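Need residues for this backbone.
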C-alpha cells in the first residue's frame, strides 16, 4: 500500500508549529489562509502572539521554512489580525503524536463577503498560477461570488464577458499558494459601473443570450444590404466580404494609433480601426474587446501572436497562434453579423495590426 505524504513547513517563529498549506496576497504579501499543526500550548501561543504588539513579543510576520530545505523559506506578513478568523480541530486521542491540534487561520472574506467594500475571496485547490479561473466548476463558483458581491443586477449569460474584463482590469486577482490557492474579487473599484454600462452600450452585454445588438436597441439602425454600399460608403456594415477585404488590403502602414477604450495599454492601427468600423452591420468593435480582455495579457509569454477571426453562417471562431502554427487559445462566437471570411491580425509590442501593416 502506497502511503501519501504531505510536505510540511516549520514555522520558525513558534516552537513546535508546522504548516501544511498556506496562501498569501501576491501584492501585499499578507496571509490569506494557513493550516497549522501543533500541540495545544503551541497553537495557543500562536493565537496569543498575533494579538500582541511587537514590543510585547507579538508577531507581525511568519517564516515558513520547508522541513526538507530550511534555507528556502518564505516570509508571510500578518497584516491586521482583526481581519482573520480561526477554526480548530483535534486529532483523535489515540494517535502516535499525542494531543495534536489543527488550526485554520483565514481572512474573513473567504467565508463572508465584505458587502460594504464589495470584496470577497474564494479558496480553491485549482491551479491559478496562469491567471485563469481554473476549471468549469471554479468558474461557476467565481460567477456565483460575482453575483453575490455586485450591487448591479447581472444576467447569467454575461459571465464569460464580465470575468474576462474583471481579469483584465484587475478586479479579479489570483493568489497561488501551497496546497491551496485564492481568487480575490474586488468590485468596489470606481470604474465598475461605468465599465458595465459601456459593455452594454457596445452590445457585449445583451438582454438575451446570443441576441444581436440591433434586436435590442430602442432606436436600431436600419438594416442595409450590400447594394447600398455606393450610396453610403462610410456607414458600418455596408460592405460585402470582398469589399471589406479590398479595403483592408489598402493599409500598408499607419500614421495614427488608437488606444483601446478599456485596456489603455493596447493600441490598434488605422487598418484595424477600418475593420472595426466596417465589420458587420453595427461594426466589429466587439472583436477588439475580445482581444484586449482575453488575449492581450498573453504577451507576457508570447511576444508575437497571429489572431485569426473566421466567420461563417452567422458564427465565428477566434483563434490565437504563436506564429509557428501552435494554437494558444480559441474562442467560439455563437452569433455575429460579420462578413464571412478569414480575417488575420498580428498582436505584438502591445499593438494590434493587420499583416500588411507589420
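Answer:
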Amino acid at each position: 500500500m502506497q502511503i501519501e505524504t504531505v510536505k510540511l513547513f516549520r514555522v520558525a517563529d513558534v516552537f513546535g508549529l508546522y504548516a501544511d498549506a498556506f496562501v498569501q496576497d501576491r501584492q501585499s504579501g499578507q496571509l490569506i489562509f494557513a493550516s497549522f499543526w501543533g500541540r495545544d500550548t503551541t497553537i495557543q501561543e500562536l493565537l496569543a502572539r498575533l494579538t500582541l504588539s511587537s514590543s510585547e513579543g507579538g508577531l507581525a510576520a511568519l517564516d515558513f521554512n520547508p522541513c526538507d530545505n530550511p534555507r528556502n523559506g518564505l516570509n508571510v506578513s500578518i497584516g491586521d489580525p482583526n481581519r482573520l478568523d480561526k477554526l480548530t480541530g483535534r486529532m483523535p486521542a489515540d494517535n502516535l503524536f499525542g494531543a495534536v491540534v489543527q488550526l485554520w487561520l483565514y481572512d474573513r472574506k473567504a467565508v463572508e463577503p465584505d458587502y460594504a467594500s464589495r470584496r470577497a475571496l474564494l479558496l480553491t485547490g485549482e491551479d491559478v498560477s496562469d491567471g485563469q479561473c481554473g476549471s468549469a466548476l471554479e468558474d461557476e463558483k467565481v460567477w456565483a461570488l460575482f453575483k453575490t458581491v455586485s450591487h448591479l443586477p447581472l444576467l447569467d449569460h454575461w459571465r464569460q464577458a464580465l470575468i474576462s474584463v474583471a481579469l483584465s482590469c484587475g478586479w479579479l486577482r489570483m493568489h497561488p499558494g501551497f496546497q491551496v490557492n485564492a481568487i480575490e474579487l474586488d468590485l468596489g473599484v470606481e470604474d465598475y459601473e461605468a465599465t458595465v454600462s459601456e459593455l452594454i452600450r457596445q452590445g457585449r452585454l445583451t438582454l438575451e443570450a446570443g441576441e444581436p445588438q440591433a434586436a435590442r436597441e430602442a432606436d436600431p439602425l436600419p438594416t442595409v444590404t450590400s447594394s447600398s454600399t455606393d450610396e453610403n460608403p462610410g456607414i458600418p456594415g455596408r460592405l460585402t466580404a470582398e469589399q471589406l477585404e479590398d479595403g483592408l488590403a489598402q493599409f500598408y502602414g499607419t500614421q495614427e494609433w488608437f488606444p483601446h477604450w478599456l485596456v489603455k495599454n493596447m493600441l490598434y492601427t488605422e487598418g484595424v480601426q477600418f475593420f472595426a468600423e466596417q465589420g458587420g452591420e453595427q461594426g466589429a468593435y466587439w472583436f477588439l474587446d475580445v482581444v484586449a480582455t482575453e488575449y492581450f495579457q498573453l504577451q507576457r509569454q508570447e511576444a508575437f501572436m497571429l489572431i485569426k477571426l473566421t466567420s461563417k453562417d452567422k458564427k465565428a471562431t477566434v483563434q490565437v497562434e504563436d506564429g509557428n502554427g501552435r494554437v494558444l487559445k480559441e474562442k467560439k462566437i455563437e452569433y455575429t453579423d460579420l462578413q464571412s471570411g478569414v480575417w488575420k491580425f498580428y498582436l505584438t509590442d502591445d499593438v494590434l495590426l493587420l499583416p500588411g501593416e507589420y
